[in-house]
Specification:
The protein is an alpha/beta fold and about 325 residues long. Helices cover about 50% and strands about 15% of the residues. Strands 3-2-1-4-7-6-8-5 form an 8-stranded mixed beta sheet. Helix 12 crosses helix 13. The longest helix is centred in the last third of the chain and has 29 residues. The radius of gyration is 22 Å and the shape is elongated.
Length: about 325
């Protein structure tokens, strides 16, 4: 046994993983007192080579690095389970392959442990210069997350007792909140260690990414089913009734046009337009005003409500829960 094992799930991002391993190999922590486990959720030669290169470079001066292939992708929850179950450390430190743990990260995180501590959460810094896009502003919100697997520490015995991560969370969304909510139900403390810093650069996103992100609502449905009260308290206090009204106005308007009722169609169309414009203006507030970004906000603000309602219905059916 050693004091701590760092678990890093990765999935076809060798360049980002290389940067993360460089930071983990430079920790102000005795090299013989920690190990690094990289779990490759979609095994590829490039990822294996990155791990092998760092293992060779740190063999005599740094911690041991282990590579585990987990043919999938199964998602980060399954990858993290695979990692901590193979760990020798009594404390498991979790971070992401696109994160950059600062030199004192391990030291500060481990110092926060004492009796009756179930978990330690560090501080996430997401640098952002200038006026953000809507996506960047949304991503930066992770800095204020109460508990995130990009920067947390948990005793191995606690993970064993709670069963680790729920592998039904297939996307990088909700699995950390689920673990956090289960820890809150136990006797013990979750400690904040602000000196345990992980820098998490905001990566570039494709045009229209916000529509694709609506699929994360599948995880919301599972999270709501497992923890309805905590979901309403900490994730979303009330439903997006404006989304439902937008979809309803689209259906009513389409039906009215088919039935030849121009007046009803006009009312439904104005309802859809006003609500969609309201969403668009809210997303544009305090963000960049480039033509491309404005066009993206106009288009995606019209597409997000039906996409969100669709995935909400799919999640409710899949997990048999009434998430509205």
């Amino acid at each position: 046994m050693i004091p701590v094992t760092v678990v890093v799930p990765t999935c076809a991002r060798p360049q980002l993983l290389d940067r993360c391993l460089a930071a983990l190999g430079a920790q102000h922590f005795p090299p013989s007192r920690y190990e690094i486990i990289v779990v490759d959720d979609r095994p590829c030669v490039a990822t294996r080579e990155v791990v092998a290169n760092w293992s060779a470079r740190l063999r005599t001066v740094g911690p041991r690095i282990h590579y585990i292939a987990n043919p999938g992708p199964h998602g980060p929850a399954a990858a993290r389970n695979c990692g901590w179950k193979a760990a020798r450390g009594s404390i498991i430190a979790f971070t992401d392959d696109d994160a950059i743990p600062q030199p004192d990260w391990l030291l500060a995180g481990m110092r926060a442990f004492d009796d009756n501590v179930l978990a330690v959460r560090g501080r996430i810094v997401m640098p952002l210069e200038g006026t953000p896009t809507d996506y960047q502003r949304d991503a930066k919100g992770r800095e204020t997350a109460e508990f995130a697997t990009a920067n947390c520490f948990c005793p191995r015995y606690v993970l064993e007792e709670v069963g680790g991560f729920d592998e039904r969370f297939r996307h990088a969304w909700g699995e950390d909140a689920d673990l956090y909510f289960r820890l809150l139900a136990r006797d013990g403390r979750i400690v904040h260690a602000p000196a345990a810093v992980v820098v998490h650069p905001i990566r570039a996103a494709s045009w229209g990414i916000s529509v694709q992100q609506q699929k994360k609502i599948l995880s919301d449905a599972l999270l709501y089913k497992k923890h309805p009260a905590l979901y309403r308290q900490k994730i979303r206090g009330q439903s997006r009734w404006d989304y439902y009204l937008i979809v309803l106005s689209m259906l009513v308007g389409g039906g009215a046009l088919l039935a030849g009722s121009a007046g009803v169609a006009a009312i439904a169309g104005l309802t859809w337009l006003s609500l969609s414009a309201r969403i668009c203006l809210a997303r544009l507030k305090d963000t960049v005003r480039t033509p491309s970004h404005i066009a993206e906000m106009v288009v995606t603000s019209a597409l997000i409500p039906p996409a969100a309602v669709f995935w909400r219905l799919v999640g409710s059916l899949r997990f048999r829960t009434a998430l509205l």
